[in-house]
Design goal:
Blueprint (H helix, E strand, L loop, with lengths): L16 H17 L5 H17 L1 H12 L3 H27 L2 E3 L8 E9 L2 E5 L7 H12 L3 E5 L5 H14 L5 E4 L3 H8 L5 E5 L2 H13 L4 E4 L4 E5 L5 H16 L10 E6 L4 H16 L11 H12 L1 H4 L2 E3 L3 E2 L4 E2 L2 E4 L6 H4 L6 E4 L9 E5 L3 H10 L4 E4 L20 E2 L4 H7 L1 E9 L5 H5 L12
Parallel strand pairs: 3-4, 3-6, 4-5, 6-7, 8-9, 8-15, 9-14, 13-14, 15-16
Antiparallel strand pairs: 1-2, 2-18, 7-17, 10-13, 11-12
Helix pairs in contact: 2-4, 2-5, 3-4, 3-6, 4-5, 5-15, 9-10
The structure holds nicotinamide-adenine-dinucleotide.
Length: 462
């Protein structure tokens, strides 16, 4: 059902343009009133988010089970726990982030001082995706609140239970004059994009990202695009058996653990030397069997449409023959078995499209810049070469996914995997404008006089 919820939990069949306009007016006026700028308002909202996460933990687990079949440990590890960490990090750094940063001033301006003062951008629009429907909705909100903005969050229609929970509960915990949650799909998204925003923060596909950027261009609205792509992992011929086992555990855990491979930073394919491939594949197979023997340990595909998309990728005859492990699927439960393919045809869709599911490929080629590159190796030269010769949103050595929870690192893509970044202080910056403030006194006019007529005519310039 397409519709909209604006803080009261009522889904309406069709969003009335007039009604939307009224709500936008509401957030604009709230921002204009200046209340979102104060430290105490920002802190109160962050505390409200924490209260929401604590009070509604069980409801969040239930919603994530309903939308994606996530186990509650997975739900805590990938969404609730990550958010609690991020809110606490913002709370303990907020004062520092809000303070102006002194900068050097040329001596010739003396006496003078200068600083960069972070100011909120205004009213921002946030789109979130369905695969981490709580985490990816609230993580950017932390940045937007910390930076003192008013905001509209559009949740994903493909995770309706999570979307409903956020729309119904967030208004009880946050200032509902400054933070609006809107539910709906493409139709609602398109309507929102017709309006003028001070920033659009979008998490989703490259295809819709292009639409967002085109619409934003009309008002010269800056955007952050958190997109996807194919993330490779390079696996060196690890000679130490223990290292091999650790690497494979981390590959298998990182690939199929978070949302059954439906993660933007999930590994899409492995790059491995041919002679090492059989050893690696054997280890992968035994680890997959050990980790996911119980199908409750793995989430399900989000809906029938995405399930069909994955089956179609696999069912191309030339692709099917490259499956060396797994490949089965169950339409009733929407589960797809962890699957490994070796040397599938380069022109097959599975090699050109983002997989976003539990299929892992071994393949070496040139690709668009990925969101993440992983490499498992002890070879420092290889690490240096990967850093120097590739471009990607991030590089992680000897593990997967963990860069997402490192507050000191920016999270975002480059090229086709995205524009801009967030997390920790980077989230604060993404939703702030660094205003240059220069203060000079009326004293000491000598230099100025030299640079103004008529004195400058007496200076010989060469
Ligand atoms: P999507 O692009 O289909 O949808 C994203 C959002 O845009 C949703 O809220 C959706 O309702 C809205 N939308 C859809 N069509 C629209 C339109 N025509 N106009 C305006 N809004 C519209 O993406 P998705 O299916 O939700 O997510 C999957 C994609 O997101 C994958 O490509 C994945 O890699 C990427 N992703 C990236 C990150 C990241 O952090 N970089 C995280 C998760 C997912």
């Amino acid at each position: 059902k397409q519709g909209v919820v604006l803080g009261n939990g009522v889904v309406e069949e069709k969003m009335e343009l007039v009604e939307l306009e009224e709500h936008l007016q509401d957030v604009r006026e709230t921002f204009k009133s200046g209340k979102t700028r104060s430290f105490s308002w920002r802190r109160r909202q962050l505390e409200g988010l924490l209260e929401f996460l604590h009070d509604k933990e069980k409801d969040i687990f239930k919603a994530l089970k309903q939308d994606l079949g996530k186990h509650q440990v997975e739900a805590f590890r990938d969404e609730v726990g990550v958010l609690i960490k991020s809110v606490n990090f913002a709370l303990s750094n907020l004062k520092k982030w809000m303070s102006p940063q002194k900068v050097h001033v040329p001596l010739s301006f003396f006496p003078a001082s200068a600083e960069v003062l972070p100011e909120p951008l205004g009213v921002v629009l946030i789109f979130s995706s369905w695969n981490f429907p709580i985490g990816l909705a609230l993580e950017p909100l932390i940045g937007a609140i910390s930076a003192g903005n008013a905001m509209v969050l559009k949740t994903s229609e493909l995770a309706p239970a999570s979307s409903n929970l956020i729309a119904n509960s967030i208004p009880m915990y946050l200032d509902n004059k400054a933070v609006k949650v809107i539910e709906g799909g493409q139709n609602v998204g398109e309507q929102l994009l017709e309006h003028k925003w001070d920033k659009i923060f979008f998490t989703g596909s490259e295809r819709i990202g292009r639409i967002v950027m085109m619409k934003a261009a009309k008002h010269l609205t800056p955007v952050v695009l958190e997109l996807g792509g194919k993330c490779p992992a390079i696996v060196d011929n690890l000679s130490n058996l223990r290292d091999r086992k650790v690497a494979v555990r981390r590959i298998v855990g990182g690939k199929w653990g978070p949302c059954c491979g439906q993660a933007c930073i999930g590994i899409d394919y492995l790059l491995v030397e041919e002679k090492f491939a059989p050893i690696l594949i054997d280890l992968l197979k035994s680890t997959i069997k050990r980790f996911y023997v119980d199908s409750d340990n793995i989430s399900r595909i989000v809906n029938k449409q995405h399930f069909q998309r994955l089956c179609d990728l696999l069912n191309e005859p030339s692709v099917k023959s490259s499956i060396v492990f797994g490949g089965s699927s169950d339409y009733e439960t929407l589960k797809v078995e962890p699957t490994i393919l070796i040397n599938p045809p380069l022109e097959a869709l599975i090699m050109t499209e983002e997989i976003f599911g539990p299929l892992l490929i071994e393949f070496i080629t040139e690709r668009p810049k990925p969101l993440a590159i992983y490499a498992f190796t002890n070879d420092e030269n290889l690490k240096q070469r990967i850093i120097a010769e590739t471009s990607s949103g991030s590089i992680t050595f000897n593990d997967t996914m963990i860069q997402y929870v490192c507050d000191g690192l920016p999270f975002g893509g480059v090229g086709l995997s995205g524009i801009g970044n967030y997390h920790g202080k980077f989230s604060f910056d993404a939703f702030s404008h660094g205003k240059a403030v220069l203060r000079r006194s009326f004293l000491i006019e000598f230099v100025c006089r030299l640079s103004c007529p008529p004195l400058w005519t007496s200076i010989e310039y060469s």
